[in-house]
Structure formats: C-alpha cells, structure tokens
C-alpha cells in the first residue's frame, strides 16, 4: 500500500512539473499581427508563435531568418482546427523559438503559394534577446 501511494505521489509530482514548465512559455499569435511584432526574451528562453493556415489552398508559411540570427527555430508543429479527416480543414502552425545569444534579429513570415513568389504583406518578428 505504501509503495502504491509513493508511486502515485511521484507521478503526480513529475506531471505537475511538466505542466508548470509549459505555463511559462509565452505564446504569440501571428494572426493578430498586421506587419511587425517585437518580442523580448532572454538567452535560452523559449517562446511560441502560432499562425492559422489552410494547406489545401496551396498557401503555407515560409520563414526567412538572416544568417547569424540570435534565435533558433527549435520545433515546428501543427494542429488540425477542424474535424479529423475533413478535406480542406484549417490548421494552426506552431513555431517554437529559443534565444541563443544577446542581440537583435528580424525573422520574416510570409503566407504565400510557393509558385507565386513573395506576398505583399509578410509579417516580421523582431527578436530582442538580452
């Protein structure tokens, strides 16, 4: 009985630690940005950027980072926003960035069709890492 209680307590502790870590990650929605967003973060801090997309239309987010940028894209993921298996359902792209060194960097997010070239309204994210 004591071993079961101890095991349950340890599992609850581990689970609560992983949940708390996620609560501290700042999330920014690119859908709310008209042209430019400034994000301040510390070295080794991670943030998430999210953006709606609909790949069935041929559109996708194309990301351009300058060489020597002081943030790294450490994870890229997506979640379905519609019902599973529905053709043409929108998705939410999730980009996780981490500050690698102090300085400033502008990363460009362009929602376009690759065969049509750049759009006229890319979104720029200015990272300031301290």
From TrEMBL:
<dbReference type="Pfam" id="PF09394">
    <property type="entry name" value="Inhibitor_I42"/>
</dbReference>
<dbReference type="GO" id="GO:0004869">
    <property type="term" value="F:cysteine-type endopeptidase inhibitor activity"/>
</dbReference>
<feature type="domain" description="Proteinase inhibitor I42 chagasin">
    <location>
        <begin position="41"/>
        <end position="127"/>
    </location>
</feature>
<dbReference type="InterPro" id="IPR052781">
    <property type="entry name" value="Cys_protease_inhibitor_I42"/>
</dbReference>
<keyword id="KW-0646">Protease inhibitor</keyword>
<dbReference type="InterPro" id="IPR036331">
    <property type="entry name" value="Chagasin-like_sf"/>
</dbReference>
<protein>
    <recommendedName>
        <fullName>Proteinase inhibitor I42 chagasin domain-containing protein</fullName>
    </recommendedName>
</protein>
<dbReference type="InterPro" id="IPR018990">
    <property type="entry name" value="Prot_inh_I42_chagasin"/>
</dbReference>
<keyword id="KW-0789">Thiol protease inhibitor</keyword>
């Amino acid at each position: 009985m004591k071993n079961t209680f101890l095991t349950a307590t340890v599992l609850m502790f581990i689970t609560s630690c992983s949940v708390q870590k996620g609560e501290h990650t700042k999330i920014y929605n690119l859908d709310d940005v008209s042209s430019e967003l400034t994000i301040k973060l510390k070295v080794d801090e991670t943030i998430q950027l999210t953006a709606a997309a609909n790949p069935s239309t041929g559109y996708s987010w194309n990301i351009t980072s300058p060489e020597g940028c002081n943030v790294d894209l450490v994870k890229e993921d997506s979640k379905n926003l519609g019902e599973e298996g529905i053709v043409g359902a929108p998705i939410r792209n999730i980009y996780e960035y981490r500050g690698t060194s102090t300085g400033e960097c502008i990363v460009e997010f362009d929602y376009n069709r690759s065969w049509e070239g750049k759009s006229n309204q890319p979104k720029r994210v200015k990272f300031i890492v301290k």
